[in-house]
Structure to design on (271 residues):
């Protein structure tokens, strides 16, 4: 069993209780314009370019056989033409280029997670699966959660709630905390995320039936949902579902916009 992981973060303090190791999985069904991990949307490994590190040596352009790199005069990339051969990355002395995401087995991920066991035992922490959307790689997520519980590790999963209900139900017995995102009024969900809220609502109701421990996480985005109406909706949702034990209001930050440029989702001017 293997999956695509783009980061494993150590000593995380905001991804569930205690000190945690957060495993970030690639792949997400949503397309939120304010996404803070745009490099996680594509489920496959992809080229990642940090413009600020580029010295303009043009070595990458000279060795690339697929015309990915062009200096016109600024360094521009044809991301879709990249085959991830890695030749440009190996020759980039400024480390401006890398491959975001790699295939890892359950055993490889767990080796990283188990290295932090003393921190979990001292703080009540554990392993958190994030992304992307862990339900996109539901089978891999389930295998990781089973492996963690077999070692007595507390588990959490950060999710938009969008995924197959049948697969979510298989995951539930191996999760201690669900960090459940609530983004915007249901009637605007399709417009801003690209998916229908009905699936998310159904999965939240499932968690409620199982009386899971849900932490409702609400990103507050200026000009989108930063208003009293949205805050009232959050309160109403927390009252409706007894599984919601707490609510976290998350401030928006613009880091995602800069990372979107790095994977070719937007031009530097933001369009």
């Amino acid at each position: 069993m293997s999956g695509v992981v783009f980061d494993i973060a150590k000593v995380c303090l905001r991804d569930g209780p205690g000190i945690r190791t957060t495993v970030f999985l690639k792949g997400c069904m949503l397309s939120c314009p304010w996404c803070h991990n745009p490099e996680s949307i594509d489920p496959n490994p992809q080229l990642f370019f940090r413009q600020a590190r580029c010295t303009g040596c043009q070595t990458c352009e000279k060795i690339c056989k697929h015309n990915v790199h062009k200096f016109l005069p600024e360094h521009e990339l044809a991301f879709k033409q990249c085959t991830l051969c890695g030749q440009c990355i190996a020759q980039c002395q400024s480390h401006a280029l890398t491959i975001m995401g790699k295939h890892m087995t359950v055993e490889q991920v767990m080796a990283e997670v188990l290295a932090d066991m003393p921190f979990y035992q001292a703080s009540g922490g554990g392993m958190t699966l994030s992304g992307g959307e862990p339900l996109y790689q539901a089978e891999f997520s389930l295998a990781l959660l089973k492996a963690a519980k077999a070692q007595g590790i507390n588990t959490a999963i950060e999710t938009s709630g969008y995924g197959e209900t049948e697969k979510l139900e298989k995951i539930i017995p191996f999760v201690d905390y669900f960090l459940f995102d609530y983004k915007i009024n249901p009637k605007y969900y399709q417009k801003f995320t690209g998916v229908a809220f009905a699936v998310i609502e159904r999965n939240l109701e499932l968690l409620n039936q199982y009386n899971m421990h849900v932490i409702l996480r609400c990103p507050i985005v200026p000009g989108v949902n930063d208003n009293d109406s949205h805050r009232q909706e959050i309160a109403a949702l927390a009252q409706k579902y007894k599984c919601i034990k707490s609510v976290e209001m998350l401030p928006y930050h613009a880091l995602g916009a800069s990372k979107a440029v790095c994977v070719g989702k937007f031009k530097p001017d933001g369009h």
Summary: The chain has a mean pLDDT of 94. Residues 61 and 211 are 56 Å apart (CA to CA). The radius of gyration is 20 Å. The longest strand covers residues 2-12.
